[in-house]
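so i finally got all the pieces together for this one. its two components total, 1109 residues if u count the protein bits. some of the lines might not be protein, just check the labels. i wanna see the whole assembly predicted at once instead of chain by chain like last time, that was a mess tbh
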Amino acid sequence: MLLYYLLPKRVQWGLLLAASYGFYLAGGPSTIVYLLFTTAVTYGAGLLLGALNQKGKQLPPQDKKAGLQRIRSKKNAVVLLTCLVNFGLLYFLKYWGFTAEVLDQVTGISLAVPDLLMPLGISFYIFQSIGYVIDCHRGKYPPERNFFRYALFISFFPQVVQGPIARFDQLSPQLFSPKKLDYENLQYGIQLAMWGYFKKLVLAERIGVMVNTVYSDYGSYPGSILAFATLGYCIQLYCDFSGGIDITRGIAKMLGIDLAENFRCPIYARSLTDYWRRWHITLGSWMRDYVFYPLALSKPFRKLGSFGRAHLGGVMGKILATSAATFVVYFIIGIWHGANFRYIFYGFYNGILITAGLLLEPAFVKLRAKLPFSCDSRGFHGVQMVRTWLIVFVGRYITRAPRLLAAFVMLKETVLHFQPSALVDGTILTLGIGAMDYMVVFLGMAVILLVEWYQEKGGHARKWLSQRSACVQVGAIMIPLLVIVLLGAIGQNYVAAEFIYAQF
Amino acid sequence: MSPKKWVISFLCCLAALPLLLAGFNFVVDPFGVFGNCTWYSFSETLNPRVAKISYLKEHFDQYDSYLVGCSSTSSFPVEDLNQYLDASFYNTIVYGADMSDSEKIVQYLLANDEVKNIVLNVYIDNGMVYGTGEDELTMKLPAEVSGAPALPYYLSYLFADPNYAFDKIEAAMEDSFLTKPFDVFNEETGAYDKRVRDIEHIGDMERYLEAYPEFVTYPHVPQTMEQIDACMESIQRIKEMCKAAGTTLYVVCAPVYSDYLANFTAEDIGAFYTALAQVTPYWDFSYSSVSEEPRYFYDATHFRNAVGTMALGRMFGNDTIYIPEDFGVYVTEQTVGEHIKTLTNRFEREDESYTQEVPILMYHHLSQETGSGTTISAAAFEDQIAALQANGYTAVTLEDLYDYVTYGTELPDKPIVITFDDGYESNYTLAYPILERYGFCGTIFTIGVSVGKDTYKDTGAAIIPHFDWEQAREMVASGVIEIGSHTYDFHQSEALDPAPVRSGVLQLPGESEEDYITAFRSDISRSLAEIEAGLGEPVHILAYPFGFYTELSQVLCREQGIYATLTVEERVNTLVKGLPQCLYGLGRFNVTESSGQELIARLEA
């Protein structure tokens, strides 16, 4: 950090590149070739597209239409090829094993599955670089000519592993502009990173122990405990992922770089669509820009739209194509998460619910008009939030269960054999964590929800804090630090004194 | 606060963290490195190597002799050694010690104290590992013992994981009178605190194997001894150091459970014990009939304290206590060749020669009429005694049982103990003459507050009359009756006692452990003292009122010198010679109005 601000401003980004590759190498040296490969391919594709765009602009007026058509097909070919190569690689690394397994079970044909290491963050950086290529195709910005600068955009270390998925036009100016030491950035960055560490180390890791205990032996627990563990998993996932992103954004902020927000108080989502706008925002917006729009505007979908308007009529007809595209997007989001039936089903689950919501919207509008209370009331918003929680909650069974079938079994148990008494008879204290741990998670979540509620209301938690007295502010440094260190960082590898010999 | 100030505050806070950690570790001092908040038993459990040396530095003046070795060394009782050698022993045992640890500890002891005796335990494991020099906080030796640089040593404890310190604070809040997993050492002796393990009732093999299933299918894991040479060189140096310091060195090889010994090859065993004989003569207890009896072991590599007593008895020529004939051989360079053969020539042991089944009967009040409940008619009682005699039973006292387990004094065929609870006058008027007539004997447990009384304490409420001290003396003098304690006033009654009424010897609800222990000690010692005053001789046996007892009550009884406690659990007792703890928690058959034949049928079912 010190070096970064001491270096001549011109080469600051060089240090970032070195740090990024150093970081990536530390994570697993052998997989760096994939990163380099994707970087090289998309870099080349960008240049090619830039050149084609340039050529299009220089076409003589008489030949413009035909020439543009030619160039367009060339550009399409470049994008298609780049996508094929990259997604092919992603498919091979991430989904090949699953394909082989399914194929083996269904047809008995066994495919060779090479034992390859999954490159860190491959789903993220491939999406990020494909976004760049499509933007180049659209001529949104000229391609990056400097390979190393482009390599930094793809590999920027705080985000390479788990996002947020950045856009070239937003990130690159920040990466390459000279940075002066800015205390405000440092302060914000540190605060954000501490907040992230708190969520990740203190809360997610803690509750994760309980979740693992229950899910690894789900047959032994009644429905209430399964639901309890799934609630725990919701907390774990949110704290782990959003905490990780906070750390990422905090570190970037310390370097004077603003990364995109990836979460915006998802607990306050009032519908599943809203939820996906608040949870993993950069994935959702990537899908919107690079899957949904191209798909909705593509020929088959336009045809589908005409078909709908012609044959179905009414609102249904109008939104048929949109709904189909929406469904595809959520289906892809589902399988983006991983290669197995659970995620495929998870894709269906989200896709079907959201599409159904879209298709039924006119009916809802009518229904709402007849309701005896206002749909803008707080009470109704609350009901919508609870409904969204339930949908997300059920979805978590699917993503966390060891197998898809297990998710169904667990859901069935939750509904049919709930046994609420198990929640109070001390069973929850036998799930790997103690009363103190639950208390920590409970209080931690209360703090998070309070802060998020304040932000959701338009408040500014950091600003509020910066207006307190120096004492309070130092307390707000020391206490979180102690909490993170004592309840999070240490204790993970702590081996209590071994009482092997104590038993006699 | 400006962002700049904030960042500076943050950096200061960050820098303060290690200082806080160091301060916390220094003050709480879980490992006992800095001499603060000393709780040796806790620290020794975390790392005996460090904390025992810390303890000794403060207490060198109390000891002049030391036991050194790995964890099995714990079971050589220092009390016995003190008696045999007229010395003050401290047991420096550290778990997982190899000979390099032992050598360094001996070196340190000789350099820091005038040492009369060193008893060095050479366990068979010492041939396997040597000089691992573990650096974990829980395993390392103090710098002054290992010779490692002091600064990194102290820093490692200063910046240790604060969870150790938190554990110490938590443990301090949970500490109790009995051993907990976090304080397994006895500070004064240095040995493991086995108060609980040494009152644990040991009976028949079936019960024992149920409690210790590891002995049923002890895993066969072949072991190799690759460090024999290094180990022996170390022992040679220990020998020389002791000689130079004028310290007497006793080398002993602790008993090894047979199945564990079977993990080693005959060649390795031969090489190990031969090499040891070439360095020094030694007492070898490694393999004997003791090794074939799981009840003599806590687990495969740790023998019981009672076995340690036998071993020391053999070494120091105590021929009063029971010691199996083949247990313990003094091995020299000349005799080792022959001796090796006995180590590798293992055998099955016959149970009959050193165990004995003994049923105990429990009576209360006798009456002239047909009895009911716990009361039995004199006629039925006589019929039962006659039937026992006709069926070959011989009555023995609890003292006879004590002599059997302690000294190996044989019991007659079909021994049986006849006991009476509460001390009713009818025991004197009816039971005593019958027993005398049949040549039987019996044991009566008196309740302190009821001796000689026919009313309950100071309530004036009429109760069944109890015999007085004169009658008691007469019975004891006849040799027919033995008296024991049924507590002084722990035999309380819901109907007659004011609340809160204690259930036998158990702790009252809401009573603190400390108050309970005080009450228990005062009741039992008063009971024993009054019996001694009444009879003119001390007694060491107790029957629990209503049969209620706990681990804690057993430990407290033992502390009061009681060697046998009786319950109301219905079972025949199995006694094992050399294991006096068999007498804690003896089972009894409650006898009610029934014929002699019925009783015999019940006993022999």
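Chain B has two domains: 25-349, 355-603.
The CA atoms of residues 493 and 501 of chain B lie 7 Å apart.
anyway lmk what u think
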